[in-house]
Amino acid sequence: MLTKFKNTSLYLPAILITALLLRVVFLGSIPSGLFTDEASNAYDAYSILHTLRDQYGEFLPWYFKSANDYREGLYTYLMVPFIKLFGLTTFGARITSAVIGTLTVFIVYHLAKEIFNQKIGLLSALFLAILPWHIHFSRVTFRAILVPCLFCLSLLLFFKSFKQPKWLVASSLLFCISIYTYNSSRVFIPLFLLGLGAIYWEHLWKNRYYTTWALIAFSILFIPQIIYQLSPEGMARANTVGIQTDFNKIVSDYFSYFSLDFLFFEGDPSPRHKINNMAGLYSFQIPLILAGLLLLIKEKTYHKWILYIWLVLYPIPAAFISPESAVRTLVVTPLFAIISGYAVGKITDFSQGIWKKAAIFLLMGVMFANLVIYSQRYVFEYPRWHTDVWLSTLGETISYAEKTSYECIVYSDHVYGTYAYIMIPFFAQMPPSQYQQYGVDVVQNKLDMGRWKIKDLEKLETLNTSCLYLLYGESDRDNPKGEDGEIIENKGYREKFIHSFKDLNDVERYRLVEIEKKT
Predict the structure, then answer these.
(1) Is the Cα dihedral 212, 213, 214, 217 positive or negative?
(2) How far apart are CA 443 and CA 381, in angstroms?
(3) In what helix (H) or strand (E) does residue 225 lie, and over which residues does it extend?
(4) Per-residue pLDDT tens over the stretch 267-295
(5) CB within 8 A of 88, min separation 6: which ones?
(6) What is the CA angle 472-477-478, rounded to 5?
(7) Which residues does the UniProt record annotate as the domain Glycosyltransferase RgtA/B/C/D-like (predicted)?
(8) I need a labelling partner for 61 at 20 to 30 A (CA). Which of 2, 251, 417, 512 fits?
(9) Of 252, 283, 249, whose CA–CA distance to 266 is shortest?
């Protein structure tokens, strides 16, 4: 079946189509909802598209303030053409990640081919195409999906410089651009480049003309990053993520990223970063990755050492923040795909005759079975698990309320707190030029958006009886942030039911009500 890899005319397109389908099918409905980070990234792109300014009115910023976490802007700018094509929708917000994820599969094919051969390139691409870890983040609007894509492309161009040294400059530029994708890259990329320089110093010295220009290009492009890191905005971001200083805790967290539970069984503890009962890698990859790492030792290619550097360095940025974070370590997904592909390639090389065919049949069968199990859980079970973390039906609730004739709509800040403010302009489809005039700023608690008001009902002396109120559903009356129903009643008002919105488990998540004074 896969004994001949002399022609990619069928295999590579088939792998890429598989990768794309796994990343775009039901993209607008699974995950079932839209997280605030996704809405913020998308609305900033929508705002850039129409006004060349972000949601705060800043002209073409390098970093987007968002909810005061100042996110790298590259991903947002890449979203702009897709928002133009598909509109300000959940699908339109997520399709950028799906395209980037599929493109990464293509790049990994060429990277593994450059390091080893075409056969291992195809197998590596296949593994990344079906990898749960990579699929998951290719289906949500998180900018971290850019990290493995640009990093692998940078490394590919570096390897091409052995044949054409001029690629050193392009590789250097891309490595620097990779730093502007996600905060963990600010640590990982410089450390990786130090390892790269140590391993390939002879190549760099031999081609010192291009190496010099590569260093100059990198330094120039890196200057804005240094300025940002020393700015109040950069410091605000550092304070937000909470960098650890306890050495023992950092070491412990570092090794957590090599645990079997994190990699193969339980995964990231956040239900937003994985599906239940599955980790980022398939359990059948355990022997493949172990075999691959051992077989690499005897591999003749000198490029193998950079794979070990990649493996050793990948947890370092995340270890300074927390243990077992799948999103902060997304850069390692291509590496595990390459090692798995390398192991399978070697196993089939070692096998002969009927044993070779049996090995191929068994491996393909196991891969297909695991993909089916993952797909079944993702499509049929995951949308019903933890619907609250994706704010399921909140968008539908806001859209419904926006279409009513009420002059005033009060959004309770108990509905995922004030940081869910961005859900209103996204689902109400507010024109950016109008939204920017409201001067919304969650840090300064400026949360009025025309007819929409985000309020803490408990702090209001009186409640406006002419407004429509968006509250948590009855099922969430035990919300520790407050019980809107009881607050309304204790203030001497009663609710008049308008509409409720239930998730896929038939649980009422949100409700729209009028209120009236008790008589």
Answers:
(1) positive
(2) 37
(3) helix 208-230
(4) 999 999 999 889 999 999 999 999 999 99
(5) 42, 43, 46, 426, 429
(6) 125
(7) 75-228
(8) 417
(9) 283
Sign, Cα dihedral of 441, 442, 445, 447: positive
Question: Alpha-carbon distance 469 to 202, whole Å?
Answer: 68
pLDDT in tens, 22-59: 999 999 999 999 999 999 999 999 999 999 999 999 99
Separation CA 23–CA 30 (nearest Å): 10
List, as one string, the DSSP characters of 465-506: TTSEEEEE-GGGTT-TT--HHHHHHHTTEEEEEEEEEE-TTS
Give strand pairing partners of 510: 472, 501
Pairing of strands 63-64, 71-72: antiparallel
Distance CA 343, CA 119 (A): 11
* Residues near 447 by beta carbon (within 8 Å), at least 6 away in sequence: 413, 418, 421, 440, 453, 454, 455
The closest alpha carbon to 23, from 102, 83, 93, belongs to 102
The Cα–Cα gap between 105 and 99 comes to 10
pTM (whole model) above 0.85: yes
Task: Look up residue 209 and give its two tokens.
Answer: 């003309």
